[in-house]
Design brief:
CATH topology of the largest domain: Rossmann fold
Strand content: 15-25%
CATH class of the largest domain: Alpha Beta
Strand order of the largest sheet: 4-3-1-2-9-10
Number of domains: 2
Bound molecules: D-glutamic acid
Low-confidence stretches: none
Shape: globular
Number of helices: 13
Helix content: 40-55%
């Protein structure tokens, strides 16, 4: 049995394209239906209540598009709102980025000391610690919110001295705590990989959650006989939706995707938000 329906992927913005890139690299026959909530990005500094509301709207939008799996590419949503999405998803598997990243760290850490960097909401939720402790209670996990990294990447400064100064500022504490693995717990951080590695030294292994999430998606689709029957899928057959076509959207998308985005359709927030939540104070 096989299944040619698309894999639904959503993120607060365009950073989730790092996950799309890995999914299509591993499974070139698959196609993706992607939603980036660029009008309300970033989610990382918002309340849990707002994050859960937006996540439900994003997921509902994709569920209406006949997807075979939902991948929550956003670390913030995976940390704060994944359980609620699982209960409302019909019959399809729903995966986030936290558990795959946590599994990789548990496999890799020899010292049993792992650092996790992410948005404020991700670190506040302590989601990676919980996922790591479900696998191995003896691993010590240290979290660090790196709030400036997202705007640095969005401004195209991932390789600039500004990024180096910010990395020093946030990461020195983790280095002194003796971690040997560092989870990049945010869609944007793989773009700062070189600066982060330089700052923490090569003694510390970096774990890219995007990569491990794509592997997990592939394993689940294979186990459920849901892999695509097609040899060629990829970007050209995928569909991309955003809630705002910002002036720099194409440049930012190519930075995350590693190539240019073939198409993108704007979805209005009115379409995304069902009637009951239109009166929401969060915009
Ligand atoms: N996509 C978010 C994450 O991975 C980063 C951007 C945001 O704060 O919305 O946590």
């Amino acid at each position: 049995m096989s299944d040619s329906r698309p894999i639904g992927v959503f993120d607060s913005g365009l950073g989730g394209l790092t996950v799309v890139r890995e999914l299509l690299r591993l499974m070139p026959g698959e196609r993706v239906a992607y939603l980036g909530d660029t009008a309300r990005c970033p989610y990382g500094g918002r309340s849990d209540e707002a994050i859960r509301l937006f996540a439900r709207q994003d997921a509902d939008f994709l569920m209406k598009r006949d997807i075979k799996m939902l991948v929550v590419a956003c670390n913030t949503v995976s940390s704060v709102g994944l359980d609620a999405l699982r209960t409302s998803a019909d019959d399809i598997p729903v995966i986030g980025v936290v558990v795959p990243g946590a599994k990789a760290a548990v496999l890799r850490t020899a010292e049993k000391k792992v650092g996790v960097i992410g948005t404020r909401a991700t670190v506040r939720a302590d989601s990676y610690t919980k996922a790591i402790h479900d696998l191995d209670q003896s691993v010590i996990v240290y979290g660090q919110a790196c709030s400036l990294f997202v705007p640095i990447v969005e401004e195209g400064l991932a390789d600039h001295d500004v990024a180096r100064v910010a990395a020093q500022h946030y990461l020195q504490r983790l280095v002194h705590l003796g971690i040997d693995c560092l989870i990049l717990g945010c869609t944007h951080y793989p773009l700062m990989m070189e600066v982060i590695q330089e700052t923490v030294s090569t003694r510390i292994q970096l774990i890219d959650s995007a990569l491990w999430t794509a592997k997990e998606a592939q394993d689940i689709l294979a186990a459920m006989n849901l892999l695509s029957p097609h040899k060629a899928g990829g970007l050209e057959t995928s569909t991309f939706f955003v809630t705002d076509l910002t002036p720099t959207f194409r440049e930012t998308a190519s930075a995350f995707l590693g190539t240019s985005l073939p198409n993108a359709e704007k979805v209005s927030l009115d379409e995304l938000a069902p009637d009951d939540s239109k009166k929401s104070t969060f915009q």
